[in-house]
Design goal:
Blueprint: E1 8-12, H1 16-26, E2 31-36, E3 46-51, E4 54-60, E5 72-77, H2 80-91, E6 95-96, E7 101-103, E8 109-114, H3 115-121, H4 126-136, H5 144-151
Parallel strand pairs: 1-4, 5-8
Antiparallel strand pairs: 2-3, 3-4, 6-7, 7-8
Length: 154
Amino acid sequence: MTKQKIRNCLWFDNQAEEAANFYVSIFKNSKVLDVFRPTKDGRVLTVTFVLDGVEYLALNGGPDFKFNAAVSLMIDCSSQEEVDYFWTSLLQGGEESHCGWLIDKYGLYWQVVPSRALELLQDPDAGRAKRAMDALLKMIKIDVAELEKAADGQ
């Protein structure tokens, strides 16, 4: 694997290894690459891991900083089944937000978005796009069938 020039560094209090293992268990083509324990007591400082081909660094930086909605990870889902899988998996111990957003048990924000939703929101027919957007804004987890019905005026 070629080393990425730019990668996300995710700041955790002290759960970097636990979080990396959790994420790797959910995404295909994922693995932990390295766990760095620089001290004699064996505490983890960083964990380098890959989620579906994208490299991340998890840092045990202490309690000073928390995740917020200003930065989220977006999953482009090809089907409702994929939406349901990622939603259920990432929600374990976390909380639902709105419009396909959730906050996992580590406080990281995720957007679980079906590709079809983006297509409907960008429909060349402004009326269809607006109806889809109006429906989306009322959803917690995105439901493709409901978005399509709304876009069609049903």
